[in-house]
């Protein structure tokens, strides 16, 4: 079997602050090829930190260790900072959660997209501007010339997130990390944004790491689901097999979601079992 | 049900997870605060220096080696020696002893200013913040007027009007020091008064006065303490400035700023007598700044 | 660029109208508030003026005035009027910049101030250049490399700056660089032997000296201003660097900084192109406020360096009990402070699109 695009083996991220040590990610292992993989977990499960570790953008004070952290043959742990800079944005990029905060409030949105392009591609301002306009059209923004000149606070949430997608996909990276890309959006807008993301990712044949706390959305959108709990992956299962999940935590998550076809009087609240902190990952291969 | 056995020592009593009396709870709180203070190097260094200076000031008559007013023109402007540890000034007086007594004056001015300015600022700020409306507008307008001047200029103007002297200097500096505290107290009050427990007390028909005194003011006190500590340095520097201009404590008082003003004529021949009081002012201000910075970092969970 | 017809729709126009109206209203509020503060300022200085234990009649006539002359002068000075009437008269004078005559010079206080102010302005300007030139980069670098030795040094130097009596630093500087080393000029703005060579055209001796093309003259003037300006500059520097550092740290914790790094920008580029842009307005207002603080510092520094500026004028007036001059100077400083605060406010409104 060919080497997968991304291989993570025994990733550990710990924070050393003062006297206490927090293990945010403990022995996480998974592969991502050119597929859509969802990482689901509650707050504090370590899913965001995993994404950031791939780009080596964890906060100061974080210590990353792993048996292997390789992307397309490149050892991400051993790479120098200049090497990482060449990878960020061009080969791996990340879509952040809330465009209100993730876009520079004093820079025109078009300019921010242009910058993403010009960091890695020597080009004239006009060329880059054209590329940015094309990208804005690709994310279904109807009036790219007008939107180009706007400031982030002048665009709606959905449009802002599409601008973020444009910015992060303009260089056609091979792996895209989406960190809760629709959590800050109105429910009505979420589907639009997801559709655009799906289209662009499939068209370019890129891998997608979709981080979310919404199990339903991930099950619907992704090919495979990784369920994280307390810094570990407890289950690794193809999305269509989710109803046959074996791990009690995954089952508890599924049971806590309301279903139209199986109404219950009271939704169950997951009862936490300390055994989950150390139990091995249940992996089911895609058939 | 926890087994309540008599704790064997004070430290075990302090570490008990569930206090059995309010007295024990208070003691544990104090001990935890002390532990937090002790782990902060700025606070420890600043606090130690201030304590040392305070002790020197209190025991000045015992620690000083000579009479601070005794002049002896035959030994004027001498370098430090065994007899005069920091040398002599232009009138033959012992610099070390004058420095030690000067510490008294410095701490006296700083302390008195804090005692006057902080309560006034606190009262004005909390009242303005809590009652709001035209009371707030009028009070804040007054505060704005005072804040429209750099504090030194305001203090200078008042001292010029009142006449030079140490008491007038204290009044003048206090008048310049209370407005920032009033602003701070008002800002704190505005956020506190929306709390549920204030609403609860109001429902119990507590009068505004009682609410302000018993509930709002105590919540403002920590940040006021930090602010006052940080301002101490500025107060000391202002007092020294006034002394230097001859508007504060008058000669032959050993106030450090006054010492600098008389030393001024001699800096070209003997740099030390100007260097020493200035260094003392610097050390004490630095200590207060460190203490204030440390306290602020402790109170502020962001740990700037 | 195509104009979008949607932009010119009536909904947009009334939206703009509404924004103008709110802007005008806030301007109006501000104007009233400023006027009230100025009024309070006048009241405060009037009050200070009346605290003086000196008898103003004696101050004018001298201690040996006759009873009749005393009564006449008392009436002439308007002291028999009720207090609020005196205040109204006082207000009237102030608004016309009539602060009376200075005791020490006998000339109108306004002309005195106009004469001495340029010296202080020059000193403050050079000091601000030093303060910003070193202070801003220091603050940014300190935040960029937070926790590094550089950061600790910058913070410690800042702490020292807050704790040092600057007039003492001036004394020490004079003792070392002038008396001992002879590297710089002594007190004053210029050596007496060069005084006649200098044509005061701008009031800024550095510029005037440069205009004459006389190198020795310029060196002398430079030698005289370098130490006091450096000391004042040090004061400004510590404040500016501390505030800049604090602003930058706040920005560097924002998400858009992460976005910039995800795009592949270097840390340096992220800090200077993205984060710094977001603190620029705040830094400018801090610099403007520093100007105001420098006025305070100038008072003592000018005394130490015998600099013939506004600060020394005020100090001499204070020591002589010349209340006309003291009040005039105090009002001027208050007005400058208020003016700078207004400018800062305006800068925020104009340059930060989020506050609109």
List the main descriptive attributes of the protein structure presented here.
heterotrimer, A: alpha/beta, seven-stranded mixed beta sheet, five-stranded antiparallel beta sheet, globular, C: 356 residues
Explain the overall architecture:
- The complex is a heterotrimer of chains A (287), B (304) and C (356).
- Chain A has 287 residues and is an alpha/beta fold.
- Chain A is 33% helix and 24% strand.
- In chain A, the strands form two sheets. A seven-stranded mixed β-sheet of chain A has the order 7-8-9-3-10-11-12, sandwiched between helices. In chain A, strands 1, 2, 4, 5 and 6 form a five-stranded antiparallel β-sheet that branches.
- In chain A, a hairpin with a 2-residue loop joins strand 5 and strand 6.
- In chain A, helix 4 runs parallel beside helix 7.
- The longest helix of chain A has 18 residues.
- The two termini of chain A are 15 Å apart.
- By secondary structure, chain B is an all-alpha fold.
- The longest helix of chain B has 37 residues.
- Chain B starts with 9 loop residues before the first helix and ends in a 5-residue tail after the last helix.
- The model of chain B has no long low-confidence stretch (mean pLDDT 84).
- Chain C starts with 9 loop residues before the first helix and ends in a 5-residue tail after the last helix.
- The radius of gyration of chain C is 26 Å and the shape is globular.
- Chain C is 76% helix and 0% strand.
- Chain C is mostly helical and 356 residues long.
- In chain C, helix 5 packs antiparallel against helix 11, helix 6 crosses helix 9 and helix 11 crosses helix 12.
- Classes of the chains: A alpha/beta (287), B mainly alpha (304), C mainly alpha (356).
- At the B-C interface, helix 6, helix 7, helix 10, helix 11 and helix 12 of B face helix 1, helix 6, helix 7, helix 11 and helix 12 of C.
